[in-house]
Specification:
The chain is α/β, with parallel strands linked by helices. Helix content is 40%, strand content 19%. The longest helix has 35 residues. It starts with a strand and ends with a strand.
Length: 562
């Protein structure tokens, strides 16, 4: 593990913010590291308000989208709500279709089949719309590059409205409206919305024309918060507001589908992390193992008992998904050893029978063992398809671009991508990818990194600091849980390995002139020799709380020890 300390802000700025907010240096530093420099910015950060959401009509083409939908409703046209099969796509379709159904009965939904149709807008989906007399398709979380597909729909007399958040190509599809804050010509103030967030801005615009406010739409925010967490978009600005209020809905009065998923969970208050690890994988499992339609059906169901039945079915998909990705991960690790590829700069593995729905998860799992850019291939029709995952700081998309002579098609972004190639090009591609990465990667990036916000003494870690840090939530990209480092620690003599396989470390640490604090280090059992016999050590951790027998106490969640 590499430990990297984040830059410390200028002393003048820190002092000014301390003065303005009446907080200590630790809190002021953490805020400045998150780009919060003034009293006003801090107020917006700590007290999210629906008033901080931007006017949806600031988004390019919003007026055109609203006018076209109003016309469709007035004329009784059939509207098809189309979205991708992942969490962002299925929550978007659930959001848009359930809102439109409050205005018209002529609404249906469409999720492409992951295996037959692949990602995004498909010719099959447009044919379905044509066969069933749909004259308007609203595409969510996809479509910004669907130039041929939109032209094909236009030939059939079908209009398109696109709500996307992916980076557009040089040319935009000739749709009635293309809502995408990442368009170069879009002046919308916040660029990091997820697909469901863009969909929410559209219903906000539609509702405003009927004299409704954003307060009337709060019940939809459980879907938006789920998408924000699952799609790993920055939890800053507008996303922070949407996630904050969405979590309130999830914890107080979620829709029956989400309520059914979390009914099994023995937690009083769900955080965004719980949403990412409990709600999102179950919604995702439908599209991975069976069909994304199952997720939309669950998320739009209004009867709780029926939703419970759907949730049981989806939970079975998720169990199936977990068993499948565990088995494939084991087979992939075996393949790396058999081929003596433990020492390379990349991991590239392939088996024709591996399940296409889980290869992305398997790629992430393999990085836990071999920390390097990773591709997992399987057979898909007459081609090979792969999911690529990268390590922090390395752009895997650029690396794939450098090997494009062997690739049929690829897409994605810096840390995750997908590609297809002909089977006969697999070995040549594998070699080329290894060569490109070995020549371009900074070797330090092949060691996992822990980014540390601040070095503190143990006496600075107290209930008051924890109360303030809790208000930094919801956490996520660009607003991660603060991570601290403390030196000169000693175990009070009660340190021991715990857990079934003794893989976790539970210690009580102290420092001269400081109180002792209990720490838990998951997966750090092998570090026990470093803390034994009164040796001094340093640790990296986040602050957490422990609930035991009705008592809540502060504890440190260890990330690493040296």
């Amino acid at each position: 593990m590499r430990w990297t300390l984040k830059p410390i802000p200028e002393a003048k700025k820190t002092e000014a913010l301390q003065e303005a907010l009446q907080v200590d240096e630790v809190v002021a530093t953490l805020l400045l590291q998150r780009g919060i420099e003034t009293y006003e910015a801090a107020k917006t950060f700590f007290r999210p308000s629906l008033d901080d959401l931007h006017d949806p009509f600031l988004m390019k083409d919003m007026d055109k989208a609203v006018t076209r939908i109003e016309t469709a409703i007035a004329k009784g046209e059939n509207i098809l709500v189309y979205g991708d099969y992942d969490v962002d796509g299925t929550t978007s379709v659930a959001l848009m279709s359930s809102y439109l159904k409050t205005q018209t009965n002529n609404v249906a939904t469409y999720i492409p089949d992951r295996y037959d149709e692949g990602y995004g807008v498909s010719f099959q989906g447009i044919d379905f719309a044509d066969d069933n007399d749909f004259s308007l398709i609203i595409a969510l979380d996809c479509g910004v590059k669907a130039i041929e597909k939109v032209a094909y729909a236009e030939e059939k007399g079908i209009d398109f409205i696109i709500c996307d958040h992916h980076r557009p190509g040089k040319q935009l599809p000739k749709a009635v409206a293309v809502l995408d804050p990442k368009r170069d010509d879009c002046e919308y103030p916040y660029k990091e919305l997820c697909g469901c967030g863009v969909g929410f801005k559209l219903i906000q615009a539609l509702a405003s024309k009927q004299g409704k406010t954003v307060e009337d739409l709060v019940t939809y925010l459980d879907l938006v918060a789920t998408a924000i967490g699952a799609d790993i978009v920055p939890i800053t600005g507008e996303n922070r507001v949407l996630a904050y209020f969405g979590l309130q809905v999830i914890n107080a009065s979620p829709r029956p589908g989400i309520k059914a998923i979390i009914a099994e969970v023995k937690k009083e208050t769900l955080t965004i992390t719980d949403v990412v690890f409990i709600v999102a994988p179950r919604i995702n499992a439908a599209g991975r193992m069976k069909h994304g339609n199952h997720a939309v059906t669950l998320l739009t169901e209004t009867d709780f008992n029926t939703a419970v039945n759907y949730a049981v079915e989806i939970d079975a998909f998720n169990t199936d998904r977990r068993e499948t990705d565990k088995r494939i991960t084991e087979e992939a690790l075996e393949q790396i050893e058999t081929n003596n590829e433990q020492e390379g700069y990349t991991t590239v593995v392939y088996h024709e029978s591996w399940h296409k729905g889980v290869i992305g998860i398997v790629a992430s799992r393999l990085i836990e063992t071999y920390y390097r850019p990773t591709l997992v291939f399987t057979k898909s029709g007459d081609k090979l398809a792969a999911s690529a995952r990268s390590v922090s700081g390395f752009d895997v998309y650029n690396a794939l671009e450098a090997c494009s002579e062997y690739i049929e098609q690829f897409g994605g972004h810096k840390y995750a991508a997908g590609l297809t190639l002909k089977e006969e090009n697999y070995e040549a591609f594998k070699q080329a990818f290894e060569n490109v990465v070995s020549q371009t990667i900074d070797k330090a990036l092949l060691t996992p990194e822990i980014k540390i916000d601040l070095k503190v003494d143990l006496q600075q870690v107290n209930d008051k600091l924890w109360r303030i840090i809790k208000q930094f939530a919801p956490f996520g990209p660009q607003n991660m849980t603060p991570v601290f480092m403390t030196e000169n620690l000693k175990d009070t003599g009660f340190g021991k390995c715990v857990g079934e396989d003794k893989s976790h470390l539970r210690i009580t640490v102290t420092q001269p002139q400081a109180q002792s604090i209990v720490c838990i280090g998951f997966g750090l059992g092998d570090k026990e020799p470093l803390i034994s016999n009164g040796k001094k050590f340093k640790a990296v951790y986040s602050i957490d709380e422990n609930h035991w027998n009705g008592i809540t106490s502060l504890q440190l969640k260890l990330r690493d020890i040296k």
